[in-house]
Amino acid sequence: MYIGNRIRLFIGGFCIPALLVVTYCLNLWFQQGIAQHQQQMMQHELARIQQQISADLEQLQQLLTLYAPVYQQKEVQGAWQPLLAGHNISLFVEQHQQLHKLQGGSFPETHQLFTTLNNPAWLASESSGILLVDDQPVMLGYIRLPNGEVLIACRWLNDAYLAALEQTQVIHLRPLSAFSILPEATPHRLYQRLALPSVGNVPVVLELQLQPQLVAQMQWRSIPIVLLLLPCGLLIVALGYLWLRTKLLTPFSRLMDELAQIDPNTRIPARLSGKGGAEFRILADRINELLLRICRHKERSRITLESIAEAVLITDRHARIVYLNPQAEKLLGVNRRQALKATLGEMFDSANSLDAEIKQFMSSGGRQAEHRKMSLALSQPRILDRALSNLHDEEDEIIGSVIVLRDITDEEGLKLQLQKKADYDGTTALLNRNAFEERLPGFVAHASSLAICYLDLEQFKLINDNCGHDAGDQMLALVAKAIASQLDEQDLLARLGGDEFGVVLRDRSAVEVTRLLKQIVHQVHLQTIHHQGIHYRVGISVGIAFCQGEPIKASELLKDADIACIAAKRKGSNQIHIFDGRNQELAYERNAPQWALRITRAIEARELLLYFQPIRNLNGGSGRQRLEILLRIKGEHGRILPPAQFIAAAERFKLMPEVDREVIRMAFDWLAAHRTLCQQITMSINLSANSLGADGMLSYIADMQALYAIPSSCICFEITETSAIQNRQRAMEMLKAMRKLGFSLALDDFGSGFASYGYLRELPVDYVKIDGCFVRQLAVNARDYAIVKSIHDVCSTMGIETVAEFVESQAIIDKLSEIGVNYAQGYVIGRPIPLQQYSLPTAGLRLVTELLAEPTAVAVSR
């Protein structure tokens, strides 16, 4: 058990060495304490001995002080003799450089003592001290008497005196000696030296030594204490280990044994007893709770995996299956025993590519699930959606994978059906427009030449209106089969709209394409349906756009083919037209969408420009000056564009009502800014066919008139003959309403539509503008002269004034005057100029317009 070994290692490797270290430190501490105690004892003895010697020297000096007055009295000397002898004190007197002993104890009168006492250096003062005489210490005191004599007291410091100084058995005194003759002192703690007061030049020291037996006794007393602490510490460690083993190791070992016996696969794990104390019971309860949560989580996971509709397989790091749920068994057709420890490749993939993919994904360490469609060799062909994820352990190492399989066979079949419905037309079984445009770039990617054909049926609406949509669908199916019968597999065919088809031909010459399309036109024309005894046929118009030897833009070619188809429809039924970029009319048609956007932006930004062209009164009257409002747009680099480039686009995309509203607003705004001209001019404003009868147009005109307070007498609205005929009923209603508002009305381009004179009787117009096609050759063409005269005569009879357009010479003016036409309009009268420049008197207007005229300009109304 690891924790027991660690505790034993802790005790043997840490506790016991620590105990030995502590014991050693205690021993050092005891030794230091003993040494400090010894030092204190030594210092105490030094102080005591020094104090004792100082006291003896002081007593010796006091003795001399008392004895000096009486030292010559014999009777007194006898009394002092016992005292001095008892203390081993000898008295001397120095007279005439001779030393005489007075009384006292036995003391040798040595030559050294005489020599020392006769030294005048120390006899010059009074003092006391210790002197070495023949290497023997002598305590010496002296005092100088008034008669010049020196009284000296000496005390021999023998062994008895030193023994008296020791008093205790703590120290031992060595004899006093001169400092210079002592051996070198050692810093041993058992010895101390005491410097004594000395007489003379030789210092005297006293050496003290602790009793060795006392020191040894103090040291030996610390050893049992230390030796007693070590086994006590070892005993405590042993008792601690026994306690740990009883209270911790044994219960913990029991707990580990119980944990080792728990089966992780059981649904309800065995509970831990927790014997050994409250802490183990708490630990066991928490482990039991954790195990119960884990088991519940595993049970929930098992139930979840077995309940979900997808097949779930778990593999190890070698791609071997270690778990699969019942749905996986059902989907794969295997049982758990067969699948465990096997791989998907071994069971279903002879090439073993599945196992390689799984192992490669695990080696990549991907965090996100990898989804992929796959097919397995099952009893029935199945398409499966495979989700592959890596399985990580608690250290984030990959230990396996999780494979989720979902049967999407029915979904894929449904997707194919929906894709087919989304890409193919249900009536003709051909590609629809979206699928056609998606496949077109790839279809033409490697083509050296390309022809895109746009086919539009004629008279198809007649079948839908008379026979119903079922008959129309039948005809569409017949037409689709007829077209497809003439094409190869490499050709692309689609139904682009209601009765429109698209064909794309690759790598064919223009002659081959034209011949093929003629065959298609012929085959389509042969298709017939019968309804209520009537045979119905359809025609077809074909537009072709070619591209060869340059980068192919299929979308642009399709637009060109559509424009060519429009041109073919103008020719009649069953016609073929090839797009030519040099054709100005087709170029306008091609650029119509861009022009429509440009017009919309110009209206929103109020960038439209108003021009005017004067109309002359040929009768010489002094009435109002008439002028026609013309529309222009500023192009790139400030170039003014004539309406031929954008009016057709506006009419094609139904923008003319908005354009007419803006022209009316701008014209009324200009009149309001030049209100003095309202009584001098009559302004003609064109209304397009789309605006004629458009909802809200009449109310808009009335609102603008009220807003700007423009008199209706200075406004004339022009409508074309063809628009009036196409919207006859609505035109009649709107013209009558405008007449009630007081506006003048003019019928523009009369004669171009071959209208009958009966319309003039019905339409409430004030002016008829004769189309320019009859005016250009009026001076040299008798037929045009007769037509113009006829129109004028009829209008004069009906009270309608006439206006001749495109008057470009004085000869034409002369002919018009001869006929009696009321007004003339054209370049010879005046060219179009910006309306903002109309600020001169009417008399000078013609001159200004002629000066501003450009000979090469082409006049286009609108």
Can you characterise this structure?
The protein is an alpha+beta fold and 862 residues long. The protein contains 28 helices and 31 strands. The C terminus is likely disordered.
Quickly describe the structure.
By secondary structure, this protein is of the alpha+beta class. The strands form six sheets. It has an eight-stranded mixed beta barrel, surrounded by four helices.
List its salient traits:
28 helices, alpha+beta, 8-stranded mixed barrel, 5-stranded antiparallel sheet, disordered C terminus
Task: Outline the fold blueprint.
Layout: H1 2-67, H2 74-86, E1 89-95, E2 98-104, H3 111-117, H4 120-123, E3 127-133, E4 136-144, E5 150-156, H5 159-166, E6 171-173, E7 177-178, E8 191-196, E9 204-210, H6 212-260, H7 278-307, E10 311-316, E11 321-324, H8 326-332, H9 336-339, H10 344-348, H11 353-364, E12 370-376, E13 382-392, E14 398-407, H12 409-423, H13 433-443, E15 449-458, H14 460-467, H15 469-485, E16 492-495, E17 500-506, H16 510-526, E18 529-531, E19 534-536, E20 539-548, H17 554-571, E21 576-578, H18 584-590, H19 592-605, E22 608-617, E23 625-634, E24 640-641, H20 647-652, H21 656-673, E25 681-687, H22 697-708, E26 715-720, H23 721-726, H24 728-740, E27 744-750, H25 758-762, E28 767-770, H26 782-798, E29 801-804, H27 810-819, E30 823-824, E31 833-834, H28 845-852
Parallel strand pairs: 20-21, 23-25, 25-26, 26-27, 27-28, 28-29, 29-30
Antiparallel strand pairs: 1-2, 1-5, 3-4, 4-5, 6-9, 7-9, 8-9, 10-11, 10-14, 12-13, 13-14, 15-17, 15-20, 16-17, 18-19, 22-23, 22-30, 22-31, 23-24
Helix pairs in contact: 1-6, 14-15, 15-16, 21-22
